[in-house]
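@channel sequence for tomorrow's demo:
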Amino acid sequence: MDTITLRDLEVHYHIGVPDEERVHPQRLLISVEMETDIRQAAATDDLAHTINYFEVSQRLLGLGQGRSWRLIETLASEIADLVLGEFGARRVHVEVQKFIIPEARHVSVRITRAHDRAAGA
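structure tokens (generated this afternoon):
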């Protein structure tokens, strides 16, 4: 399986457990690794046969409009479902980094999700 990676996409979403933390959008970095078969795209040089990473980035940039989440775990899971469902990845790895603890570089959640048929179920 081949991988297309979108690394450290900067977004600003309303996220956090306490209500006051969700008042203002917070800077997050999102990384998405999308597993797919790119052989046909490579052979034909045709974007229609691969995952359009620009469209993925635009979808993620707009995802937070009018929305909020309490947990980055929930956000990461929603992003994984979106990439699997809307962009046809066979498996996806999503990492969401949050910069909320001043003494730490960041906190992050990394998840992996796959279509049932791709996972062998």
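heads up for whoever presents: The helical segments are 39-44, 53-63, 72-87.
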